[in-house]
Structures
1.
Amino acid sequence: MSAENAKRVGIVGAGQLGRMLALAGYPLGLRFVFLDKSKDAPGGQVGEIILGEFGDAEKLRELSEHVDVVTFDVENVPVEAVREGVTRPFRPSVDLLEKAQDRLLEKQLFQSLDIPTPPFAPVDSLADLRAAVEEIGLPAVLKTRRLGYDGKGQRVLREGADLEPAFKELGSVPLILEGFVNFEREVSIIGVRSVSGEARFYPLSENTHREGILRYSVAPFEDRTLQGLAERHIERLLNTFDYAGVLTIEFFVADGKLIANEIAPRVHNSGHWTIEGAVTSQFENHIRAILDLPLGDTTPMGHSAMVNFIGTMPAVEDVLDIPGAHYHSYGKEPRPGRKLGHATLTSQSRTELMMRLEHLLNLAAE
């Protein structure tokens, strides 16, 4: 296939996820064009960026004119602009994207598909909040319904005195109250489905967050019962929306059961371990899925971990000195709380992996 007639993929958002999608797609002979408001976004290192806002239907139409299929690396793409502006196949599902943008719609979707969630209630006033707390109890978590990520837009309520200050801080927008889950661990499953309906699943990963931001993941999390349950839950979502692409569900594990926290209709931070740790990475499988190519093997190759580099990057030579380590820099300007890169670790021994992970976490301390 020559460069002139190569398939072209448009990506709304040129962040690190878009960049990694392009890096996975180039060996397949593909070309990539991004839409982003910043010319310095990571995707600019590997493809052309059309400058514009995600909600600009004309810019989405311009992106469409350059490509064969359109996908995205962020959830905050206004769906009405997509419906108006995108003139090529838009994958994954815009309908599921719409629900993923609103925590209340997301929880109602889980409920409709018999996927367990914490108790929840919409909150539009302080009176609503008091009534919801009366019903759900404390502790509970008050969250904005839209545009919350990496722990932003939420407050834990532990006693009655917390209600009014939390509502005053967050209540200028629609909210949701969720029951607090006293979880044993957090896990996520990544599934992928092609246009033709072929589906594959990665093993669960165990995720550790601090201040709402994912710090590291370890995979596979080996629990046959929970793996089977997670696959059934995610397959229900994939099939309901005739989905094409990668989908992620984050779960709490409590009392040996899965409680759904949220979905991400895209490649996901907790799946970065698949770049070196699985036969086919989540990024390559997403590209295969949206182009209806045969999906790749999702089998893990031993044991893997991923550590985010947040705020600062450790020296590359220190990371690469750890056996089985792979260094990924996104080319971003450092600033506190910003994901600048990550490293993956691979090992045939779980014990050895955890020893190396401890070393890597010391290097990654912000």
2.
Amino acid sequence: MSDKNPLDPALFRPEAISPETKGINDFIIQAFGSLPEWWEIGAQTVREARAKGESGFPPLPKSPRAKVIEIAGKGGHKVPLRIIAPDNPRGVYLHIHGGGWVLGASDQQDPMLERIADNAGLAVVSVEYRLAPENPYPAGPDDCESAALWLVENAKKEFGTDRLTIGGESAGGHLSAVTLLRMRDRHGYTGFKGANLVFGAFDMAMTPSQKHFGNERLVLRTVDIEKFADAFLPGIVDRRVPDISPLYADLRDMPPALFTVGTRDALVDDTIFMYGRWIGAGREAELGVYPGGAHGFIAFPGEIARAANERIDAFLKRIVT
């Protein structure tokens, strides 16, 4: 990866992909190729399989350090928050998990959350937001907004610091951007110190890379994006309103952001376009482009995952200093 020019065309050429990354991608295609489609067997069936480690992603242990609390959400709904915190945290990281707004859970990436807690010195608070299709838009964004509001009001008391950061992966990157916009527009809060937006989906009307990725099963295909979006946004025709597609939002007063994506990700355009819009709004942003990285690549052991995760940790640590 080039630090000098994050959009160096050489990063996107086939010869930039290392043999190790090619091998990881071959493994992903094989591991995901035999999995059933969630829309055929039901989202809950796939959620239960993922909870048991029976999916294409590596099974991950649960942290003995984690604790779960519940906060009040909209309409009387309770929102669980999974907390992994070091002693005397320097700040708080509001984490929003991925999974296409349909799958995933706050307890399915504990090693990553522990790593961020320890390396960046942050109390990590992961949101157990409601999932589609049972709870379509705006349920998930509402829960993330509720979690952000709770932290603004309670972080100092709970963690000894009110230095807040936010971020997530895939659908979690999308929900992080939506939450930042809601906090600014609905509550007048622009105090987040930074945003860690990892291969997020920022245009629910579909970017070119989403539309043209095809059927290669590198975690996320065009059909997966379509099915996830239809479950999350049933009956919604205009998908370019900012609360649905933050790419189209006014990005004034957004915090410094780190954008991370691999070149073999169906959402590569989303990250590049959003990075450009962030810069175009006069906001600070960094872009990490990783040759050959598939969607979700930071979860698969390899050099590009190590490099991306180290940069994420360093960014989060720096922005709360």
3.
Amino acid sequence: MAADLSQSQRERIAYLELKAYFAGELRRADIEERFGVKPAAATRDLAAYRQLAPANLSYDVLARCYRPAISFKPVFEFSPDRVLAWLLHGFGDGLDLKLRKAAPCEGPGNLVRPDLSILATVTRALCAKSALKVTYLSLSSGAASRELVPVALADNGLRWHVRAFDRNKSRFGDFVLSRITRATELDGSVEEHELLGGDEQWARIVDLELVPHPGITWPKAVEADYAMTDGVLRIKSRAALAGYVLRRWNIDSSPDHRLDPSSHHLWLKNTQTLYGVESAALAPGYAVDGAGQA
């Protein structure tokens, strides 16, 4: 049983399972590099895991790595929030160690938690650069089958999306992870234009100049909130994510700052930077004008 292991070995074996399940491959060197242990210790960890779950891993002789078997069933209970934090930042390793907080600290929490088996299928395909056949629930058309080539994960502050090439529409798009109800990896190679290098909206970097909303009576308070320099906060965003950034922070993106300053403390000063940015349709005030949209 996993509970019978020492805390340090539990952490290593949990990482071992996490890496295999969500990245689709595991090498002894992964354990050595992550925890700074000797090869003999990493070998013992692999042996201990295979005793816990004999049917979970299969060895790929050609790639010289372990892969999750068809019969894979996680030993550890990973929370979606921690797995996504690991995918985003690389720390935490998805395992909840139940440590006490150093000080009281709470957040609003996340209402949306994607299914871990779907997430694992998506991330394995992303790492392997392979395509998926998915059932996707769209707000406009309901459930439909799609062929997607996932290229990146993105957090919009409320939900996680997978950026993917949609073979049905021959273009890149954003797909809410929790709306994928089924996912199966497809055999065969993918084309170069279906991979991340072919996503122009992801590659394009947009400069956003944010200032206190002109309707704010005391703009210095907003400048202090965001540690502005000379009254301006300059940030960079991928074009594919710029609209999400502007919506998340309720940034008035209308050219004439027409939105209510009581709920939009910031204004996008250089609205022209959104020209050709597809995600700009999500920016508060911008989609209404229709100017500069792709």
